[in-house]
Amino acid sequence: MKTYDFSGWATRNNLRCSDGRTIMKDAFKHNDGQTVPLVWNHQHNDPLNVLGHALLENRDEGVYAYCKFNETESGKNAKLLVEHGDVSALSIYANRLKQQGSNVIHGDIREVSLVLAGANPGAFIDSVMSHGEESDDEAIIYTGEDISLSHADKKSEDEETIADVFNTLTEKQKTVVYALIGQALEEKEESEDNNDNDGSKGGNKTMKHNVFDNEYDKNDILSHSDMEAIFADAKRYGSLKDSVLAHGITQIDYLFPDAKNVTDTPHFIQRDMGWVQKVMNSVHRTPFSRIKSVLADITEDDARAKGYIKGKQKKDEVFTLLKRTTTPTTIYKKQKLDRDDVVDITDFDVVAWLKSEMRMMLDEEIARAILVGDGRLSSSDDKINEQNIRPIWKDDDLYTIKAPVEVASNATSDQKAKEFIRTVIKARKNYKGSGEPTLYTTEDVLTDCLLMEDATGRVIYDSVDKLATALRVKEIVTVPVMEGLSRTDSEGNTLNLMGLIVNLADYNVGADKGGAVNMFDDFDIDYNAQKYLIETRCSGALIKPYSAIALEMKTTA
To answer: What pLDDT sits at residue 339?
Structure first.
């Protein structure tokens, strides 16, 4: 535009608005060169509110607008308001908005408006936009940037500010200026420190103004002799950059860009969770929580079929009925956040992030309770009752076969691994569970088995699959929470858990209709706290006899 009355930023790139969304670079690139109406305060209901037009220019920093008033009474009045500084800010009205997460990546600017800057102290978007897909949603986006009058109207080139001149420099030229200013400030502070040490007056002065103001202290600018010294050193160092750095720059980190997160949300420091979903997806589920198992023992001789001798009385079969009932318990996790923190954290959805952590930890606790118990003392108020969620490891011998891996106290890792494999293979004949079971074990046990070598030094099992085939299990799953677990048997022996063999289809998890996993939100008005609760009410137990094998290392003298 050859003539214009004023100009300013219609919107700026990487502008984080108060609702957490960010205007990205080139979001309005296709509007470059377009002319749109200039209106008053986004009022579309009266043609008298059209003050003129704005030519849009897409730049690396955002979209810049060159604005021209029309000759209407409204246009003339608005021009006077701008010239006197009564109105000093712009905003845009845009539609067809598109987002990726919290980033606004596309939109169509339909008009530019003059707005009262005082009403908009910070950048924000005055709308609710959809997330993820292009839509007809609209937005009024305020940047809070001041506008500039046309040089042709009110200012001459002699009245350009230092900031105007500085903005004409390239990025490389700006970097040199930053370095020179830093050097000047350092040398000035050193000079003033020396004056203080000599007892001279004046003390240590620091720069109190913006270096880009119209008025500035010439003493803060590098002298001709300083520049000569730097350029002379440039010949010796081979580059101006090395010369400037050699002179030293105090607080050079001010020139560095701000640190940025490499992930959208904080990363959890956690145990390997892969096993959790394997457990939760493998158990058998019922829509009722009170589980009753009725078993008939037909292994005794009295239950055997009998041969008949003519003239003798036929005997009745006798076998024992066994019954076990498991009732539900409640498992929960609570969290709370200060309401102010929820509002202030705008980089990501902290509530959704917190809820994902709560669900993840709830699932891990249930899976742990199913395999080995929660590990808390019986006296703990937080303990998950083992009569409601029965751990496979500690279950009755009728359901879990106990297979001791007996090794000498001075046995090597290789010897322990060989005895473990031998015990698994021998105990497998007693397994009466469904189908092909899975071995749940620790990384240490699995590693020792994979490192076993034959007499020639060759690795016996060069893959986990080959080891699983030898152990007659479907797969091997490592469980971090099984590390270091032990119990004491009735004879006082310490038994260290090495693994569990089970098909979790034989483990029933029951929950009534109200026992599904539920998330509850509540606000504590007295403490300004947002509280969250996730809970479930369920039961769990093996329902098939001899459906699991617990492998425990027993040390002998």
So the answer is: 84
